[in-house]
Design goal:
The protein has eight helices and nine strands. The radius of gyration is 17 Å and the shape is globular. It is α/β, with parallel strands linked by helices. Helix 6 links the parallel strand 4 and strand 5. Helix content is about 35%, strand content about 30%.
């Protein structure tokens, strides 16, 4: 039987559709959930004392975020950034950026997330575009696994709440090897300045470029940060 990369398990549950997107001249197949509001309602219905609600395990994996599109575009337009490299994706969600890294020629891509459903969607995105099985793993930013450390890390829109800043800086410190580079995109949120400042204080160098994305009639202002270690 042909491997459907998890489609049969996910399609009914999330009312999946597949949308083709042109990214840096490549046609990418992106699975999208058609019941985002229902997924949010299911989470809220668990009650304020439920672990999933307390920890805000929101189904971000159900949508294709502008920051992930810009990161995917950057990698596909500049394949030398990842070609032949081992790449770690943090907070993979749909796995779009990780899949782009695979298409761009990365020797290995490990897509990680906190939610099992996100990992399942990332497997599907990878399979739909590369036709092979994906490498995925559970990763909690608060308890990063040093064994996953690598020289190329990618992350789209992970610094969206101030409470995540310290755990992310600690995770970056453990997971980015000396001489490595982390590519981070975010939608120009005001609090991102605080996060970048915190990274600078902890020995990271951040170079930022501005990118504009037209998506569904909306123009998005996305910042791309090249983050490297200035001290060991």
């Amino acid at each position: 039987m042909t491997n459907d990369f998890g489609w049969s398990d996910l399609a009914g549950r999330f009312r999946l559709t597949v949308e083709e997107r042109e990214v840096a001249g490549q046609r990418l197949r992106v699975p999208l959930a058609g019941n985002v509001e229902e997924l949010l309602d299911e989470l809220i219905a668990k009650g304020p004392d439920h672990e999933d609600v307390k920890d805000e395990r929101i189904p971000y994996f159900a949508e294709c975020w502008p920051s992930s599109l810009v990161l995917a575009e950057h990698l596909l337009a500049n394949p030398a950034l990842v070609a032949g490299q081992q790449v770690l994706e943090l907070g993979c969600g749909l796995g779009l950026a990780g899949t782009a890294a695979g298409i761009a020629g990365a020797s290995q891509v490990l897509m990680t997330d906190y939610l099992d459903d996100a990992l399942a969607m990332a497997r599907l995105t990878w399979g739909l575009n590369l036709g092979t099985g994906a490498s995925v793993a559970h990763l909690d930013w608060r308890e990063p696994d040093p064994a996953m450390a690598t020289k190329v890390i990618i992350a789209a829109d992970v610094a969206y709440e101030a409470r995540h800043f310290q755990p992310l800086v600690a995770a970056f410190t453990q997971l980015l090897l000396p001489g490595g580079t982390l590519w981070l995109t975010e939608p120009s949120r005001h609090i991102a300045k605080e996060f970048i400042s915190l990274l600078n204080q902890h020995g990271f160098d951040c170079q930022t470029s501005l990118h504009w994305l037209e998506d569904r009639g909306i123009r998005h202002r996305i910042q791309l940060h090249r983050i490297s270690r200035t001290i060991g």
